[in-house]
Specification:
single chain, 388 residues, alpha+beta, eight-stranded antiparallel β-sheet, five-stranded parallel β-sheet, 10 helices
């Protein structure tokens, strides 16, 4: 696919990783993004999407409206457009969409339809419910998830007797290790690109509960999961089944819980996912090129890592209301999503992303924590703003 100077529109809550990958592949990129970080601005023309009202947050419908005035011939999206098929349809008007269309999203992002299809195909999958179970059916534990889920936002444990809003559903709790598999698909077949262990609710990164806050990418000799060989074989088959049943296109991810060599799928992320930039770093490949080629039916061979080094990333969330005194402190090779000097970041919102590379998972995790500590020391808490 000839990408020279072709104009690509990328839209999402945070688009930096995909936009940078596309720019490196030779595309002219316009990004509609909720943050407008400095390193995104170096790779793309940025339209900062602001909510219509101050108390509201960025949303894909608003971003899709912003896209109407961008004369790009191609379009792609990141999180959380997968939860808004109508916004994806609008984003693709007059453009060629690189990624899963609205019709696919309506099906694969429906947790009940996904569960039904996987069970029919003989895949072990947690039970899902649209209504709270009666007292006679409360055995086991449940988590309550938004129907428009993403990154663990709004996910909580459900207790019997607690009301279940129509915007939420219940998913059976499975004890194990959170992970994900990344793959690329042409609508019929899938090729696994990588697998990772997820960092979830890590207080050292300012996260809690079920919130996603990073990943450690696996390698041929890594030991991220018990019974890893069996787990990855099953994850590859899972990617094949979901691709075949739903007709997935481009790069996709599946979040799962690893338990006794079985990946219990939690949800499908039918778009570029957070861990995928680690694959690009580890294997020296262009994720956007792979994504674009797959959308016209060209699948790559399974990539081979350049070394046995593990690559990880951590999303550093503000523990308090925070001010960025200077962006220069964030200009490090192991940092991304660089905030603006003088920017105020609310508690619980991301400050930046840190990367790490090490020979084993524990060392990689420790280095992520160390670099997160450097980030926290570089910012100014709200109670020191006047003094600063």
């Amino acid at each position: 696919m000839d990408s020279k100077l072709r104009h690509l529109l990328v839209a999402g809550v945070t688009t930096r990783a995909l936009a940078v990958s596309a720019a490196r592949a030779g595309y002219r990129v316009t990004a509609i993004d909720a943050f407008g970080d400095l390193d995104l601005r170096e790779a793309a023309e940025v339209i900062l999407a602001r909510p219509a009202k101050q108390h509201m947050r960025y949303g894909p419908p608003q971003a899709a409206r912003e896209a109407d005035r961008v004369p790009a011939e191609l379009a792609a999206y990141t999180s959380n457009f997968e939860n808004y098929p109508a916004a994806v349809a609008r984003l693709s008007r007059g453009r060629r969409l690189l990624g899963n269309p609205a019709s696919v999203l309506c099906q694969v992002r429906n947790p009940f339809q996904l569960t039904q299809v996987l069970r029919r195909c003989g895949v072990p999958v947690p039970e899902t419910r649209s209504r709270a179970p009666g007292q006679a059916a409360t055995r086991g534990q449940w988590v309550m998830k938004p129907r428009r889920s993403g990154g663990g936002h709004g996910v909580t444990r459900w207790t019997p007797g607690r009301p279940l809003p129509r915007s939420m559903y219940l998913q059976q709790h499975v004890s194990g290790i959170p992970g994900s598999v990344s793959f690329v698909a042409d609508g019929r077949s899938a090729v696994v690109l990588g697998f990772s262990r997820q960092l979830v609710g890590d207080a050292r990164l300012g996260a809690g509960g079920y919130r996603y806050c990073g990943s450690i990418l696996g390698g041929p000799r890594s030991k991220l999961f018990p019974q890893q060989g069996e787990l990855l074989d099953r994850a590859g088959l899972l990617a094949e089944v979901i691709t075949r049943e739903f007709g997935l296109l481009g790069v996709n991810g599946i979040d799962f819980i690893a338990r006794r060599g079985i990946p219990y799928p939690l949800e499908v992320n039918p778009r570029f996912s957070a861990s995928m930039e680690l694959i690009e770093r580890a294997y020296g490949i262009s994720m956007f090129r792979i994504h674009a080629d797959a959308c016209v039916g060209l699948l790559p061979s399974t990539p081979e890592p350049n070394s046995n080094v593990l690559h990880g990333k951590g999303i550093v969330f503000a523990r308090n209301h925070t001010r960025i005194p200077s962006s220069q402190k964030f200009r490090r090779p192991w940092m991304a999503d660089v905030p603006h000097g003088g920017e105020h970041i609310s508690q619980g919102r991301p400050i930046c992303t840190v990367f790490a590379a090490a020979r084993n998972p524990d060392a990689c995790r420790r280095l992520i924590w160390k670099r997160a500590g450097l980030v926290y020391r570089a910012v100014t808490p709200a109670d020191q703003w006047t003094a600063a």
